[in-house]
């Protein structure tokens, strides 16, 4: 226990950093918008949505971090490393949320959209008022799994001078603490975060999910 008690503030900073990365990147992950682009009747929007998902889903997250951290400053965009990390994580996660939402949209009967259009609704109204509320019920579990993966993916940010939970092992290792117990407490921190996300989405699924 002394590894944790003697370095509680360090673990606390790392834990808070991981929580902040997860929350901010989740808010930035506009997968719903990209899913709307992918099913839009406008060809350029569908092409943009498809390209976004294809590129980001097939790009290693570490490579995306390098592109954001080293590439954007060359174009004059200089931001804190934490902001760059949120941007990389949010964009990467948005591709997976987009596909989860699109799969949910495909479960909504075509007649629902046709009925909405017959009432004079345009595409944004049909999508936001009729289709997405029904699709949301089926995509709660996959979105929850994606956000759990996001919390664990945030560990990559520690390699780019961003304070997060996994990175706490470096100063503790230099101070000579037992590496096994160092990682035990790190793993417990990640377990707390992922269980909290899982519990939240379990509540959402029980309230709004499709009955089995």
Automatic annotation (TrEMBL):
Annotated protein name in UniProt: Amino acid ABC transporter permease
Primary localisation category: membrane
Bilayer disposition of the protein: Multi-pass membrane protein
Subcellular location, record wording: Cell membrane
Alphabetical list of PROSITE patterns matching this protein: ABC_TM1 (PS50928)
Gene3D superfamilies assigned: MetI-like
Keyword vocabulary terms for this entry: Amino-acid transport, Cell membrane, Membrane, Transmembrane, Transmembrane helix, Transport
Keyword Transmembrane: yes
Similarity-based family: Belongs to the binding-protein-dependent transport system permease family. HisMQ subfamily.
Transmembrane spans: 21-39, 51-70, 77-97, 179-204
A matching Pfam family: BPD_transp_1
SUPFAM superfamilies, alphabetized: MetI-like
Positions of the ABC transmembrane type-1 domain: 15-201
